[in-house]
Structures are given as C-alpha cells and as structure tokens.
Amino acid sequence: MTEAARGDVDVDGAGIAVSLREVTKTYDNGVMALGPIDLQVRKGELVSLLGPSGCGKSTALRIIAGLEAPTSGTVRIGSRVVNDVEAKDRDVSMVFQTYALYPHMSVQRNIEFPLKSRGMPRDERATRVREAARGLGLEGLLDRKPAQLSGGQRQRVALARAIVRRPAAFLMDEPLSNLDAKLRVQTRAELIELHRRLAATVVYVTHDQVEAMTMGDRIAILDRGVLQQIGPPQAVYDEPANLFVAQFIGSPSMNTIGARVVADSEAVAVELPGARIMLPAPTGAAVARAGADDVVLGVRPEHVRIDGGQLPATVSVVESLGHERHVVCRLDDGTMVIVREAADASPARAGDAVGLSVPSEHLHVFDAGSGRRVAV
Amino acid sequence: MREAGLAYALVLPSLVVFGAFIFYPFVRNFYLGFFRTPPFPGLPKKGVGLTQYREVLTSHDFLNSVKVTVLFAVYTVPTGIAAGLGLAVLAHQKLRGIGIYRTIFSSTVATSVAVASVIFGTLLNPNVGLLPWLGLQTNPSILQNPSWALLAVAITTIWQNLGLSFILMSSGLQAIPDELLEAAQIDGAGAWSRFRNVIVPLLSPTIFFAVVVGSIFAFQSFGQIELLTQGGPTKHTNVLTYFIYTTLQQQQDDGKAAVLAIALFGITLLLTLVQMRLLERRVFYAR
Fold this sequence. Notes:
The complex is a heterodimer.
Chain A: E1 16-26, E2 32-42, E3 46-50, H1 57-65, E4 72-77, E5 80-81, E6 92-95, H2 107-117, H3 122-135, H4 151-163, E7 169-173, H5 181-198, E8 202-206, H6 209-215, E9 218-223, E10 226-231, H7 233-238, H8 243-248, E11 255-263, E12 268-272, E13 275-278, H9 281-290, E14 294-299, E15 305-320, E16 324-331, E17 336-342, E18 353-357, E19 364-367
Parallel strand pairs in A: 3-8, 3-9, 6-7, 7-8
Antiparallel strand pairs in A: 1-2, 1-4, 4-5, 9-10, 11-12, 11-14, 12-13, 14-19, 15-16, 15-18, 16-17
Helix pairs in contact in A: 2-3, 2-4, 3-4
Chain B: H1 2-32, E1 35-36, E2 46-47, H2 51-58, H3 60-91, H4 98-106, H5 113-123, H6 130-133, H7 149-174, H8 178-186, H9 191-219, H10 223-228, H11 240-249, H12 254-280
Antiparallel strand pairs in B: 1-2
Helix pairs in contact in B: 1-12, 2-12, 3-7, 3-9, 5-7, 7-9, 8-9, 9-12, 11-12
C-alpha cells in the first residue's frame, strides 16, 4: 500500500475517534467486499467515504457501526477495541439513507428513543429532546408522526435522533440522496454548520463527489473494496494518486490521453495522437525514473486551452451551461478531450479545427500499466 | 341510468349465488327457530314463536357449551399467535440453513385437521402412544379426563395452526425494513426492547388480523372435537359447533339446532365487533 493510500494520522491513537486497522470483509459466498483497509478519523473531523456503488464504503460504515462484523482486522472507537462490542453498546449514532424513523412513534418519541434505551431519566430526556429539536427547527413538529412530515423534515428528525445522544461519532450513510436537488444543497450546508457547531466526528458515506468535496475535512476514495487515496479534498483533486481517483473526482472528469514515452539524451517526450510533446524537465525525469514505456496523461478540463497549441483537435460539440462552456474536442485518434471555458471566451464552433495546449504544471502523468501517478 | 342498469346486471350473477346459498339459508335459519321439532318424525311442527329461543339460550347445556367454546378460544388463540410470532422471530435471521427451520416451522400448514387429530390421538393413546413408551400410566386416558380433554384438543389445534400462524407472522416481519431494526440496535435497544418497541407495534396489524380470524376459527372448530373426544367426557369439550352437529344429526332437532346456529353467529359477530373496538385503537397502520 502506498503512503498516500494509508489513512495514518496518529499512530498512538490519541485524538483518534474512529480507527480501522487492516480491516477486511469477505462474505460467505467468497466475495471480498472490503480491504484490507486502514482508516483513522480524528476527533471532530468529517471524513467522507467516497466511491461508486459496490465499492465497499457502506460496508466499512456498517462495520464501524457494528451492524456487520469484519472478517479480520481491528475496529476502534476512541481507544477502545470494539470488534466484540454489540452495536447498541458502541458509542455511535447513525443516519440512514431512508432515515429509518420509527413510523409508529411521534417525532418526540423518535428523538427520545436512543435516550430511553439507555435508561436516561425522564427530565433529562425532555431537556435533551427539546435542545435537539430546537437546533434543527423541529419544535412545532414534535407530536407528528413521520408519515405526516416532508422528506426534508424527516431528514432533520433522523439527524436530531442522531445528535441527541452526543455520541463519540456520527455515521451517515448517504443522508442526502433522498432529497431533491435544491433541498440537498441547502441541507448540505446545514450539515456542515451542524458538524462545526457540535465539533462532531463524522464518517460520511456518499457516492456524490460534490458532497464529498464540499463536506469532508478529508475524503477517502474507495474502489472495489480498496482504499485508493485519502486526504484533504483539494489535495486529492490536485494530486490524484491514480487514474481511478483522477477520473472519479471532478466534473467533467479529468481528460486522459494515452501516450508513448520517447526518451532521447536530452529530454523526455511523449507521443500523443497527432503530436509529440516535450515533458517539462522534472516530470520527464520522473517518468524516466519510473521506467514506463506507456503513460496516460491527465489534464483537467479547466486547464486545457484552445489557443492554437501543439495538439491538433476538432471541436465536436459545444455545451453552454450559461456561466461556462464545455467544448468537447476529438483528437486525431478519436480520444475525447473536454475543455472548460468561461462563458465570455470567444466561442468555438462544432467542426472547427483547433490546437490545444496544456500548461506543464497542470499535467498529470500516470503509469499506463498500474494506473499509479508518476510522482514528480 | 343505463350505466346503473348495466351495473345491476353485472352484479346479478353473484347476487343470485349469494342469495341462494347464503342469504336465504341465513334468513330461513331464523325462521326455523320459531318451530319446535316434533318428538316423532312425521308429526307436524309446532310454531312456538320466541319460546324456543328463550329455552335453548338459557339451558344449562347451551351455557356450558359457550363456556367450553370460549375457553377453547382462550387456550388456542393467544398461545397460537405467540408461538407463531416466537418462531417467526427466531427464523428471521440471516443464517445458513435457516430455510430448513422455516420449512419445518411452517410444515403443519400442509396437515389437515384430520391428520393432526390422528397424530395427537395416537400420541395420547394410553395403550400404544407416546405416554406408555415414556412409562406414564394415564387412567382415564387424557382425552377422557374431564380436566385434560379440552386442553389436549386445544394443544392439537395450536399445533395444527402453528404453520399458518408462523407464515403469517413471518410475512409480517419481512415487511418491517431491516434498517428500522438496525437503527434501533444503534439507538441502544437490546433484543427485547427491539421486539417490544419496534417489532410488535409494526406487526400489530398482522397480530390484530390473526386475533380476529383466529377467534372466528376457534369458535367454528369441529373436526378435532369429532375425531378426538366427540364432545366428551361429559360434554367437557362440547363446543358450540359440535353441539349444533349432535343436535341436528343425532337428535334430529332442526329447530333447536337453528337457534344454536343463530347464537353462534351472534356470539362471533359480537366478539369481532368488540375486538375491533378494543384492539384497533392500539394498532398502528403504516401509510
């Protein structure tokens, strides 16, 4: 496992709220759903687990919650090893995608249930429920049943039920994906505020990279049960550890162009469809060090320029989004390159022959065989 | 107008069938109760108005029969539902081979009341059954023992209905989203608390249905009585249906039998209404 893929933060465990060590999950039918995975979440931190469906992110969350047992590895909440601790005795709370509100209980009783289960006295329960309800604007709804609430209100009740207990960690499994687009953006902001206000530790599962980028202090990207990279959103965006991460994060996703390495005595160049481009010296040196014959060049749409550069292409479609334009170009061999332009740039038209260029500092190079980033 | 005519025409066939086989016999039954059956066949029936109703409904045999029937329902319905629910919760696990248990638990649904009665009749037989094999002497035999006979018939009934009860409760359980039980687990609820606070309330429509239908079934039980005890010993298992049957078939007294049948109908109706009033308030229907 590469350094970048490790979730190490603090080896002693001080200041760590949730930790997975070498955790794997293999189902009875032999399918390996997860791991081995290492992940450490600091106290007060929001870590997004991001990946396509079936990548193991929900499995990881359920293992932390105690709803599923890991096949091997160690799960800690705080400094306590909880592998053998039942879900009800782990100090976590969870928000489900479907909210999982108890349909036969009023909002009041839903929020109160975790306190009641732990035998908290009635007076204290009432105070806590009131506080949580006030924090989420639910005061007027306490007597309603979940069926009488809108989607957004149900979501708040689920959140209130999670925060009322003040657990060591909040686990959230795609909590926004059942909301409509407008409400999702609003609730996303409210969740961030809530996280700040409570200084809460949150493990947040999502398949939506915008959510992961905007909410996470760090994001952990999983694919097929393997942790691909973990780090602050901007770092992951700027230096994706491999092709999977590069293409998963960012919208439209990073352009990738297959290239052959051509080294001569002076410098390292790459053969692209229709062009040969010299790599900047440090990048060239790194590629030479890596010894790769075939690489994949990656460049984000906002970093490609249509300026008569060396790379010949034909404009195929221009998509205008109002505030910006996506110009879809084809290279000589048909490789698609999307260019993101400001709306006020002079527009290219479909069918135009253009030349593209990429500033060398924005060029990402990946090993074509392993998909790993060639670090400069 | 033409649409209404068509509607009536479409309803007519089922109305005819219901009329001939349900409504007419039902009304006729009331009417039969007004006539005393002559002591010897061939003599004319005597119209006695409500007198026969009064006599039959205040008779010791009738009151005993009601008591036995109610006891039988009390023995069988709650226990049957509780046992079915218990097994359903046990079998509601994601374990390898759990399907085998589900099949076993639901298997009695495939046995008829006759099969169940023969099985228990054999098991409880004082000479050849399980009891002598265990070295237990039963004299009088359990099915002829006034203290045990009704209980034995009730146990047979519970066993026979267990499969249906299990399937009913299992299907109710499967309709409860797993996430609710997981949420309860994370909320700190132990197995008992999850059962009491989540499973039972959400199963309440199923349980309510099982109580109402189970009670009606219990009030109409006949086969196991006929096969195991014939209402005996000394009318200790003489449930209403069996009482009606012997009155009609052995005493040939169709007037009295009609009154008893009306009484059974009335009791069942009343019971169902009461259950709906009392229980439905505590039932949660998800919308």
